[in-house]
Amino acid sequence: MLSLIVKAGGPGSFVVWQTIFNRLMPELTVIDWHDKTADLASIDYAFVWQPEPGRLAQMPRLKAILSVAAGVDHILTDPDLPANLPVIRMGGEDTAAQMQDYVRWAVFSLLREAPRWHSAQHKQIWARQGVPPVRLSSETPVGIMGLGALGSAVAQSLVQAGFPVVGWSQHKKSYDHITSYAGTAELETFLRSCSILVCLLPETSLTRGIITCDVLKQLQKPAGLINVGRGRLVVTSDLLRALDDGTLHNAVLDVFEHEPLPAESPLWSHPGVLITPHVASEASRTARAGYVVGVIRAFERGEDVPLRYDPQKGY
Ligand code: NDP
Q1: Does ligand 1 come within 6 angstroms of the Cβ of 150?
Q2: Which of 66, 68, 165, 263 pairs with 92 at a CA distance of 20 to 30 A?
Q3: In the chain, pLDDT over 90 holds for what percent of residues?
Q4: What CATH number corresponds to the domain at position 28?
Q5: Are residue 129 and residue 205 in the same domain, yes or no?
Q6: Are residues 132 and 220 both part of a single domain?
Q7: Would you call 278 a catalytic residue per the annotation?
Q8: Do 71 and 59 lie in a common domain?
């Protein structure tokens, strides 16, 4: 009998997960992370979001840790994380499709000045002055920082929507109609070739704080930023400075250095900014449970599992 311990969502959500897992994989015993009487020595897999440090180390039979989200930074902060244990990122078609929809919405929102109109609407101001002339999608190059599982899906959907698209990653990629740049040597060329920058990098020691005022200065004007990667990729003080001095015309932000975004943050009321509360891609519970079951079955068959965190690469 295989067992899975679950820490995903607020109080009451365990029963919902348990019902879904029971339907998809009846032979799996599903255990609540918050059950103080749970026999931790019997657990094979953990499906978690922000596990309390040290708890996973108390599960000697654990074969893999599955992240509730595509990022695994919330797991890696555990200093007692058992070494060499596979950590698997959330994936699946729904996760990519949701990110494609969100980024398309965000790109069109920046292109058509949604932050300004939204801010003016709240003040009941009918003002058309002071915004740049309307651009077409075909004349607005979009740069995707992080051309991985999600970034490449997003890039392709923006190509379909008619945008010129460039991408940047560690290694060069080959996708139809997408110019690919790689590594620090090509970062400047990449930045200079786009006007809206979409950040879909993971947070690692190399990417933390990568988006500075100097980076934003290199974008074609009017410049826009969409951050759906992680909040700490951006230096918040630089972002505010760039928005205030016009280096950056507008932004859609889904992730923040501190979440929830503190009430005193000037980003809340900035007329150039649209804020969403880390919702860009959150596949349904059924889709995520289906992905988890697929990973467990592959593991049990001894197959390689995609989206496995690589400690050498840091993502
Ligand atoms: P992947 O690991 O598949 O892709 C990461 C990409 O970043 C790869 O293209 C990789 O390059 C590139 N990369 C990593 N480090 C560097 C670096 N130092 N320099 C240049 N490129 C680098 O991740 P996903 O696409 O699945 O997810 C990306 C991130 O999106 C997640 O880590 C998470 O933080 C965020 N996310 C946010 C969500 C939200 O709701 N806001 C939901 C889901 C994910 P290469 O391909 O060459 O290895």
Answers
A1: yes
A2: 165
A3: 95
A4: 3.40.50.720
A5: yes
A6: yes
A7: yes
A8: yes
**Residues 109 and 29 placed together within one structural domain of the fold:** no
Protein residue whose Cα sits closest to atom 35 of ligand 1: 229
Residues 146 and 72 in one domain: no
Ligand 1 near 218 CB (within 6 A): no
ipTM (interface predicted TM): 0.99
Same domain, 152 and 237: yes
* Same domain membership, residue 29 and residue 138: no
Q: Strand 64-67 relative to strand 45-48: parallel, antiparallel, unpaired?
A: parallel
**Closest Cα to atom 5, ligand 1: which residue?**
148
What is the spatial distance between Cα 229 and Cα 70, in angstroms, rounded to a whole number? Answer: 10
Q: 128 CB less than 6 Å from ligand 1? A: no
Q: How far is the CA of 141 from the centre of ligand 1 (A)?
A: 20
User: How many helices, marked H, and strands, marked E, lie in the chain?
Assistant: 9, 12
Residue 288: what pLDDT?
96
Domain-terminating residue out of 275, 291, 309: 275
- Which of the residues 55, 104, 278, 285 is marked catalytic? 278
Output the residue whose Cα is nearest ligand 1's atom 21.
169
Residue 233 structural domain: 94-275
- Say which residues have a Cβ less than 8 Å from residue 228's Cβ, sequence separation at least 6: 99, 102, 103, 106, 198, 199, 200, 254, 255, 280, 281
Q: What residues contact residue 283 under an 8 Å CB cut-off, 6+ apart?
A: 90, 92, 94, 95, 98, 291
Count of domains in the chain?
A: 2
Q: What is the pLDDT of residues 55-75, one digit of tens each?
A: 999 999 999 999 999 989 999
Confidence at residue 128, expressed as pLDDT on a 0 to 100 scale: 85
Regarding the beta carbon of 146 and ligand 1, being less than 6 Å apart is answered: yes
User: Do 64 and 155 belong together in one domain?
Assistant: no
Exposed/middle/buried for residue 115 (C-beta within 10 Å: 0-12, 13-18, 19+): buried
